[in-house]
Design a protein that fits this description.
Layout: H1 3-20, E1 29-33, H2 40-56, E2 60-64, H3 71-78, E3 86-92, H4 94-101, E4 112-128, H5 136-145, E5 151-155, H6 160-172, E6 177-181, H7 184-192, E7 198-202, H8 203-208, E8 213-218, E9 243-251, H9 256-271, H10 273-281, E10 285-289, H11 291-311
Parallel strand pairs: 1-2, 1-3, 5-6, 5-7
Antiparallel strand pairs: 3-9, 4-7, 4-8, 4-9, 4-10
Length: about 325
């Protein structure tokens, strides 16, 4: 073999080593938010943004891709270069339900690698403070007497809110009219404006607006400390615990080294007492789940949601 060929091989090997050892991140990170500004995903990303910049040593740019109950943003994530420089907020059960039930979701659950889960928000059924429905029994009685008359707002289609709506109909033998919004912020605005009769809302919105609403039932095993007067669905005889889990993900194919760096940054943020205290005071439930724990959890929840869909007689791409 000639010296020229040897020199070329050595040069290529050196280039390969230098590329593989390239620092990460090497440029700003784009953080996709799949719901409207002002909602839970946006609130948490904005809380994390300066801390991520400090920990990762690079600018973090929040970008909104709103539509399809989050699917527009997750499809964007799945088609992004898998180099760790594009991340997105992820929601469970949304990223499980949408690929199962929609032929046009634009992504699959396994096209997203979960990096970490950092937050949960139980879902409650709320009506305005001046509503004639004082209890869930009142609500159900009216719904049975007036099929389809009660409009119930939720965030997205084939989302946790939509699933809670379908469960509520099934368990109470009622027909309700689901009104999907592009996010929690417009959903709550419509509710407060009197445009919908009820809403299946996230816990922090229920806490934030508790003086303007009445929570008829709440999605937890025990009563929520910030809403002590709200009974759980379980104690009212309905076997449902609706909730949304939030975290962050990257495209499938992202190198494990990059995923690990991002994972450490998000977990480090969740170790901070002030972050956990802020979440709790606002009505969130803090989580701190690693990538491996997330993958196991998503597999477990895929089985559980599949069983729920079977009970609801909902199968296949719609």
């Amino acid at each position: 073999m000639s010296r020229l060929v040897w020199a070329l091989l050595i040069f290529l090997a050196a280039v390969s080593l230098s590329v593989s050892a390239a620092p990460f991140p090497a440029k700003p990170i784009t953080y996709i938010i799949c719901f409207d500004p002002g909602g839970q995903s946006d609130l948490e990303a904005r809380r994390q943004q300066p801390l991520l910049e400090e920990l990762l040593g690079t600018p973090v740019i929040v970008q909104y891709k709103v539509g399809g109950g989050g699917s527009l943003g997750w499809a964007e994530l799945a088609s992004s270069p898998p180099d760790g420089h594009t991340i997105a907020g992820i929601n469970i059960p949304h990223i499980i339900l949408q690929p199962l039930l929609r032929g046009d979701a634009g992504y699959s659950t396994d096209s997203i690698i979960p990096v970490a889960l950092f937050q949960a928000t139980p879902i409650g059924l709320a009506v305005p403070k001046d509503s004639p429905w004082q209890t869930l029994d009142d609500f159900i009685a009216y719904a049975k007497a007036n099929p389809g008359a009660i409009t119930v707002g939720g965030s997205g289609t084939y989302s946790g809110h939509h699933l809670a709506h379908l469960q509520l109909e099934k368990l109470t033998n009622t027909q309700l009219s689901y009104v999907p919004f592009t996010g929690a912020a417009p959903q709550v605005a419509a509710f407060l404006g009197g445009h919908i009769a009820a809403m299946l809302a996230n816990s922090n919105d229920l806490v934030l607006h508790r003086d303007k609403l009445r929570v008829l039932a709440f999605g937890a095993r025990e009563r929520f400390s910030l809403l002590p007067d709200a009974p759980t669905f379980l104690e009212l005889g309905l076997d449902m615990i609706p909730s949304i889990d939030r975290g962050v993900g990257v495209p499938k194919g992202t190198p494990p080294e990059q995923v690990a760096i991002l994972e450490r940054a998000f977990l480090a943020i969740m170790e901070r007492p002030e972050i956990q205290e802020a979440m709790i005071s606002q009505g969130f439930v803090p989580l701190r789940m690693s990538r491996e724990e997330c993958e196991d959890y998503i597999q477990q929840m895929t089985v559980e949601y599949g069983a729920i869909l079977q009970e609801l007689n909902i199968t296949g791409a719609q």
